[in-house]
Write a structure and sequence with these properties.
The complex is a heterodimer of chains A (114) and B (114). Chain A is an all-beta fold and 114 residues long. Chain A is built from no helices and eleven strands. The chains are: A mainly beta (114), B mainly beta (114). Chains A and B meet through strand 4, strand 5, strand 9 and strand 10 of A and strand 4, strand 5 and strand 8 of B.
């Protein structure tokens, strides 16, 4: 069975500071991994994804994430937070062996202080 | 073309009534998903459809929930005899055939059961 754990339901950073949102997964087969973002009063949109190849994945708005198989992690980072990054972020996992069932984490709400 | 659309955007109903929620996926997308997002919680997988294959209903919380997809396009999620705990935002997403593809989310239907 698959599961996703996002450490910290709320994360607060100062503008310009490093953003680190943690995601750990469990999967019996190699997974596809995703980060989605939900801005206030908007729908979810893809931030980035890992399917195969390079384990460091770059996404939109300066975000990136690294797939670490040994740690079963897919943490999301951004070197310098911007006020517009305030949103809720969801990590998700899907097996790469077929099937479309996607399991989402509980989400982490990012607050950015001026 | 247009994105995923859902209707209604908001629905208020009385406990015990049946409700139908509609999803129009992106044209050409063969996979369609339903999720539930309760207040302060992550996305809970409900069901997905992929082409002509049997749907994966493993996430439906009870037999009061059902969904169908007609003609491989529009989908309807039906909740019978609604309960207050059914109050949530119901999200629909669609994607192209491959499991590595991005899911595109609709704006959701906010359901309130009084």
């Amino acid at each position: 069975a698959q599961s996703v754990t996002q450490l910290g339901s709320h994360v607060s950073v100062s503008e310009g500071a490093l953003v680190l949102l943690r995601c750990n997964y469990s999967s019996s087969v190699p997974p596809y991994l995703f980060w989605y973002v939900q801005y206030p009063n908007q729908g979810l949109q893809l931030l980035l994804k890992y399917t195969t190849g390079a384990t460091l994945v770059k996404g939109i708005n300066g975000f990136e994430a690294e797939f670490k198989k040994s740690e079963t992690s897919f943490h999301l980072t951004k070197p310098s937070a911007h006020m517009s990054d305030a949103a809720e972020y969801f990590c998700a996992v899907r097996p790469n062996t077929g099937g479309f069932k996607t399991i989402f984490g509980a989400g982490t709400r990012l607050f950015v202080k001026a | 073309g247009a994105g995923v659309s859902q209707s209604p955007s908001n629905k208020v109903t009385e406990k015990g009534k049946d409700v139908e929620l509609r999803c129009d996926p992106i044209s050409g997308h063969t996979a369609l998903y339903w999720y539930r997002q309760s207040l302060g919680q992550g996305l809970e997988f409900l069901i997905y459809f992929q082409g002509n294959s049997a749907p994966d209903k493993s996430g439906l919380p009870s037999d009061r929930f059902s969904a169908e997809r007609t003609g491989g396009s529009v989908s309807t999620l039906t909740i019978q005899r609604t309960q207050q705990e059914d109050s949530a935002v119901y999200l629909c997403a669609s994607s192209q055939q491959s499991g590595r593809e991005t899911q595109y989310f609709g704006p959701g239907t906010r359901l309130l059961v009084l």
